[in-house]
UniProtKB/TrEMBL annotation:
Classification via Pfam families: DUF6011 (PF19474)
PROSITE patterns per record: ZF_SWIM
Keyword GTP-binding part of the UniProt annotation: no
Organism: Parafrankia colletiae
InterPro entries (alphabetical): DUF6011, Znf_SWIM
Name recorded for this polypeptide: SWIM-type domain-containing protein
Domain SWIM-type: 81-111
Keywords: Metal-binding, Zinc, Zinc-finger
């Protein structure tokens, strides 16, 4: 019997991930469905920002940096940003106090 040397767990709920697509994104199928259901009711973000946030989550462009409070997110051009669950982000929109899709992605995880 082969015993895995490392386990991969869902970044949202903590369950073990077994399928290659789930391992690649970091989220299980139940959490992915949750993001899709929660996205239309995400207040304060444009439909485009919500769409970009869902894409960010589906492509695995987000990783926890400090527990569930600070996340590393990837921008459209491959730049990495620090995004807090409280709404701060180091992208240009976030620096200017505007909502960005990085924050929307973090809020979908927390929803």
């Amino acid at each position: 019997m082969d015993v895995p040397t490392s386990a991969t767990f869902c970044l949202r709920c903590g369950r073990a991930l077994t399928s290659p697509p789930s391992v690649a994104t970091g989220f299980g199928p139940d959490c992915t469905r949750h993001f899709r259901r929660a996205a239309p009711v995400l207040p304060g973000f444009t439909p485009r920002q919500v769409e970009d946030a869902l894409e960010l989550l589906e492509l695995g462009g987000i990783a926890p940096l400090r527990g569930r409070r600070v996340w590393l997110t990837v921008g459209h051009h491959g730049t990495t940003y620090r995004t807090a669950s409280t709404g701060q982000c180091t992208c240009m929109a976030g620096i200017h106090g505007k909502p960005c899709y990085h924050v929307a992605a973090v809020r979908l995880i927390a929803a």
